[in-house]
Each structure stands twice: as C-alpha cells, then as structure tokens.
Amino acid sequence: MIWYPYAQMKTLAPPIKISSAKGVHLYTEDGHDLIDSVSSWWSVIHGYSHPEINEAIKEQVDNFSHVMLGGLTHEPVEKLSKKLEEWLPGDLDYCFFSDSGSVAVEVALKMALQFNTNRNSPRRTILALEHAYHGDTFKAMEVGDDEDYHFAFGKSNEKKQGVIHIPTEIPALEKAFSEYGDTLTCFIVEPLLQGAGGMRMYDISFLRRARELCDKYDVLLIFDEVATGFGRTGNRFVADLVLPDILVLGKALTGGYIGHAATIANRRVWEGFYSDDPTHALMHGPTFMGNALACTVALKSIELFEKGDYLTIIRKIEALAHRELDGFTSPEISDIRIMGGCICIEVRDGKYLEGFRQFAFEHGVFSRPFLKYMYTMPPYVISEEELLKIISTMKSWFMR
Ligand SMILES: *Cc1c(COP(=O)(O)O)cnc(C)c1O
Hints:
The protein has 13 helices and 16 strands. By secondary structure, the protein is an alpha/beta fold.
C-alpha cells in the first residue's frame, strides 16, 4: 500500500496514473494528455525527459551512480560545487549537499546554531515569518508556520520554543529586532515569495531592512530559496538582490529529476567552523549527499538555465499572465498575485475550489490547488499557447 502525501487515505481520490512525460506534458495510462501546471511541485523547470539531461544522466550511470562523500569524492560533486561557487553571488562559496530541501533547511539551522555555540555565544532564538513553509522535518516544521504542525501535535504546541514568527512588515521586523535582537541566532525567510504558505508575495524593501538589522545585531540571515531559486520570482536568485549569509537550494536544483539540495554558507559562517578544535566541526552527513547522478543533472540543469536565457522567458510568462489576468474579477476572487513564473488566484472560500482539479483535468491541465489558492508555476519551457490554456482553464472556472 502506498501512503500518499498530505492525504486522508480514507477519502483520497485515486491519483492520476502517469505512464510517460515529455516537455510540459504528462501522459496518463488511460490516454489523457495533461499540461503540468505545477512542474511537479515547482521543480521540473526544463520540462520532462529533456534530451540533454537524459543524455548526461545516462553517461554518468554507466560510469557510476553513487559513492559516499565520507572519505571519498568525485568529479560531478567537485564540478557542481565549483559551479555554484562561481555562479552564486558574493562569498556564498561553501556548499553542503543533502538529499532534500527539508534536510538542507535543517542543515542551515544547525549551522546557525552551532556557529554561535562555536563562538561561545548563548544566542538560541530563531526569527521566522508568519505563513512560512520550510519543509516537513521537525526543526523545519517548527520554524514554519503551518496548520499541519497542529494536526500532528495539537494546539498545545502552539508556542514553539525558541522560534518567533513575524509578518512581512517592516515595523514588525524592527520591533522584533529591538526586543530580541541580542538573543537571535538567525532570521530564516522564503525571500519575496512564500510558496506553500499561500503564494504570498512581499517587497524587497523588507529584505533590505532585514539585512541591515541582521548586520547591526550580528544575526545570520538565511534565505530558503528551495522554491524561489532558479528564476521563479523573475530573479535568478533573490540572493542576487540581497545577500544572505546562508542560502538553501532544492527543488529546481536538479531540474526535478532527482531529489537533491544544497546549503551554501558564506565565508564568515565557514570560518566559524574552521578550527583546530574537532568539536567545532559540522557533524552532519546524509547518506546520499553529493550523489553523482544528482550532481550531474544539476550541472546540466544550470547549463541549460544559462544557455536558454531563462530570465527573459520568465519575464514573458509574467507579462502574459498580466495581460490575461489584470482586471479579471469575480465575486469569489479575493486577490490575484503574479511574480515571475508564479501566478496565483486567491478565492474568498477554499470550498469554491472543490472540483477544480477534475475540471482542469477535463480541460487537459493538471492542477493541484490548495486551501484558498488556485495557482500555476509552469515549467519555463512552456509555449505561449500552452500557458494560455492553463490560464484560460483557471479563468473558466469562475465563468461557469
Ligand atoms: C518544498 C520546500 C521545502 C522542502 O523541500 P523538500 O525537498 O520537499 O524536503 C523547503 N522550503 C521551501 C521554501 C519549499 O518550498
């Protein structure tokens, strides 16, 4: 029995069975052709079964698929860390690999906490955002601000020890720093776009102020760009605009081929661990960190991203979304938000979206709305015609 994600298994509608996938299309076992409007949880940026990625992975598989990084190393992982070092802004040069975004967030938080232990600082508090999502492992859940946590642990756990949540508003940010600044280890955010918390978008000025305050109060700034990285906000990385101390990448890192993630520290964080004292080492090591297939795919994915002028393509996606949705209204809609390759229609009552999945399916689109949010984060390789089909399917739901 497969236990499916985020689902009450007793009432779960049978999932759609996919037999093959190519470009932005999912082909079902019973002959349907669906455009994937969510890029398999926002990761498949180059589309499915990309010939160049397929070629690269086949070549690597015939050489070897995996060796552990404990005591061993290999060319794909060396090349990827070198590539990230060159490609990422500032001195974000020190790459710790892991197998998923959640684990990469755990590593980032562990780095921030131990950075302070190593310098004999008693700082332990973590600042995070309301509506944050950072993954489903324990510490990631704690810094997150998600209902699911209460499903599992009950409302009694409402006050999470050592984590403070604030809204994305500068006065709240300033207040938090003036009250707790001297006790904070780090401030973790999904920069500009909060994905699983409801495709919430906020202004860069908040992050600029956060950077200033983190400098002033000696607090590490962590960007969880698992969802926003690789162009989703219209920027290559939000870290190109405001530089964090630790950057977390996942999802699109491997173009949606294989689970892999990276926690990338700047020089100062690195130096906080670099010492003659063995207890200052970062004690972490996922079995599959630096997996050779994942690193090969990530390298190819980055190459395609550079070669393909993706930021221009994403600007076109954004412009088309504005053209189709600016001024679109319905009594059921409370907000429409567009940023880069993320397009979201928020409704007043989530019940209104019941049945939309089936409706989209019948229109040849795979969609997975959640709570009050109908959205698309398409693969960047989507054609104008295919994107129009997704958006017109979304609009048609309100015009039935
Ligand atoms: C998806 C996501 C994660 C978790 O990544 P997994 O690979 O699912 O563990 C963490 N942070 C953000 C912002 C995400 O969107």
